[in-house]
Amino acid sequence: KIVRNQPLFFKLRLMLVALFETVTSLIWTSVLLVGLIALFSVIFVQACAHYMDEAEPSDGTLHVILVFWHSVPMGVLTLYMGITGGLNWWALEEAFLEFSPFCAAIFLAYQVFMVLALLNIVTGVFVNDSIEVAQGHREMRNITLVKRYEESFKLLRQTFMKIDEDCSGSITLDDFVHALQYTDVSVTLETLGVDSTNAVRLFEAIDVSGALELEIDDFVMGCVALTVPAKSVDMEFIKGQNMKMMRMLKSLHATTKSGTEKVTLAQSGDQDTGRR
Question: Would the pTM of this model clear 0.70, i.e. be above it?
């Protein structure tokens, strides 16, 4: 509970969650890795067994083979050490070159495949799983969003203080346009995702009330609203508002037309009465 409630342990919690969620991938990766290594181990042990039957006892290569290739399990351990840095694989390659260039070529291909292909693929799988866990975990996602908004609020408040040079507590359009000439203000807004290329248009978008003056809360909330991308629910809401406005305009047009016709008829009646 202490770890859960302390923001200091957020990274630790994230690593632990990712570790527990990737256990299945770890098991299947281990099975694949052991299976491939065992396959190559069988090939090398059989080749070394044929060589040991014909080799002289004084052969220096025989000592390397007896140590590392005397059984399949030892071969698996040797191949594993060869790709993880536990053993200098050149000593094994040199021994293969002495009696079997074919085995030397296979061993070299094994090193290239395992180090450059398989291990990188495994690393990519674990990184992808960890990213998906971090993005899909609801609590982690909420904590990340809260931290992001806190940092955005802090930066926007600092930016407002820079724009409000006279410390009046509010900024005008002229103050805003003048402040955007400074690189640090414009860069801060661009970093937060606020397009500051058109200062007048940006100020008008934030100034919802149309008072041509912004207080710090209006400035911060307006900039934060501009940083959030529009979602489908926002588009549907705008569509619904447009439809309501269209119905109101049609009703207003019909009312105006009816009133105009009544006025026209009344004027025509007055003219007829006047003639009589």
Answer: no
